[in-house]
Q: What sequence folds into this?
């Protein structure tokens, strides 16, 4: 049933956000620590576990897939409620700071991509070794 | 009488109205994408740009802080685009994620989080210095704002920044999120943002959740879960480091 998929997604989301809140309290940060990320990991592991045991009905999948597909419209609605006027009202200092931060982030994507790769290549022989064993 | 009835219906059925409005916006956007750009610019990128443009118009006409949502006729957008459904839909995108891709990018993803928070903070502090701020509290708050618009006020409140500096830091974070949404599809090909690995790194470097969610959606929806997974930890790391380590370092350097 479709509701099983929606419920699975709801349980993962709620649990993730809850763990994020608790982690925030424990660390002493007034923010949710990785709530959505934890929810995503839960969904990945739960769905692959269920898949392995051969119990994932296509209808159940649809309950998750609908929300995955409705993601873009939700992001458009999110864009429509950003405080764009407020951002521009911040003046040149705010605009420049925001621009510079994002420009550096963009520029560092290829740099960090290389950094990670070296390590991935270095660990590759180990993986091979374990396969050979 | 007609306006009154219309307003009553769209408010009572807010989320349904939002589905209709966003649906039409998406249709127009994808049509424009196909006709004007031959599909080169993603329809979702155009739709997000429309959303931001309308948010600006809404903000200017109402003087409110929530873009189009401040227009009573369109208040339902607040439900559809609010944090609850946004997080729910982001979590749903994880369905069908390739676990091996994720593991392979894990280390680079964690590294990108700290590099992302650090460089955004430095960028904010540098701009604040250029605009004549010299005290450690203001510098730290504006730097934290360049991390995300949540880290800015959280940090500012913790270290006692003035409300003017807090507003500036929020604005800096908003600009960052908006530029991420608009510019990501255009720069994606130049920074290799076309696979799960770079999406994980992108999420950690940019971090601001709406910016990552919107930017990746406008570039390639398949990359969304990878970027959003790392970005989920970004604001928390910013809130953790802002009032503590980053403030102490800034104070040590600028007194």
A:
């Amino acid at each position: 049933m479709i509701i099983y998929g929606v419920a699975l997604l709801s349980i993962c989301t709620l649990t993730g956000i809850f763990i994020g809140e608790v982690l925030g309290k424990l660390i002493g940060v007034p923010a949710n620590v990785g709530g959505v990320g934890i929810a995503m990991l839960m969904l990945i592991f739960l769905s692959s576990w269920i898949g392995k045991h051969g119990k994932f009905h296509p209808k159940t999948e649809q309950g998750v897939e609908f929300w995955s597909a409705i993601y873009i419209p939700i992001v458009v609605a999110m864009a429509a409620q950003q405080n764009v006027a407020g951002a521009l009202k911040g003046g040149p200092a705010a605009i420049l700071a925001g621009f510079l931060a994002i420009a550096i982030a963009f520029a560092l994507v290829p740099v960090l991509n290389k950094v990670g790769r070296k390590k991935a290549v270095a660990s590759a022989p180990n993986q091979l070794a374990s396969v050979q064993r | 009488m007609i306006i009154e009835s219309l307003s009553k219906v769209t408010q009572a059925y807010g989320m349904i109205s939002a589905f209709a409005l966003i649906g039409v916006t998406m249709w127009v956007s994808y049509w424009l994408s196909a006709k004007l750009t031959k599909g080169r610019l993603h329809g979702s990128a155009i739709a997000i740009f429309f959303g931001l443009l309308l948010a600006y118009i809404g903000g200017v006409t109402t003087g409110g802080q929530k873009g189009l949502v401040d227009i009573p006729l369109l208040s339902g957008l607040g439900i559809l685009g609010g944090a609850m459904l946004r997080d729910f839909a982001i979590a749903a995108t994880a369905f069908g994620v390739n676990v091996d891709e994720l593991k392979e990018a894990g280390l680079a993803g964690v590294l990108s989080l700290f590099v992302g928070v650090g460089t955004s903070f430095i960028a904010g502090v540098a701009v604040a210095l250029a605009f004549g701020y010299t005290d450690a509290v203001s510098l730290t708050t504006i730097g934290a704002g360049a991390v995300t618009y949540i880290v800015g006020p959280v940090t500012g409140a913790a270290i006692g920044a003035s409300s003017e500096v807090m507003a500036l830091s929020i604005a800096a974070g908003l600009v960052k999120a908006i530029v991420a949404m608009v510019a990501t599809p255009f720069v994606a090909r130049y920074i290799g943002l076309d696979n799960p690995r770079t999406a994980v790194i992108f999420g950690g470097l940019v971090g601001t959740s709406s910016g990552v969610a919107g930017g990746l959606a406008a570039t390639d929806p398949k990359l969304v879960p990878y970027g959003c997974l790392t970005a989920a930890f970004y604001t928390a790391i910013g809130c953790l480091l802002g009032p503590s380590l980053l403030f102490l370092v800034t104070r040590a350097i600028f007194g």
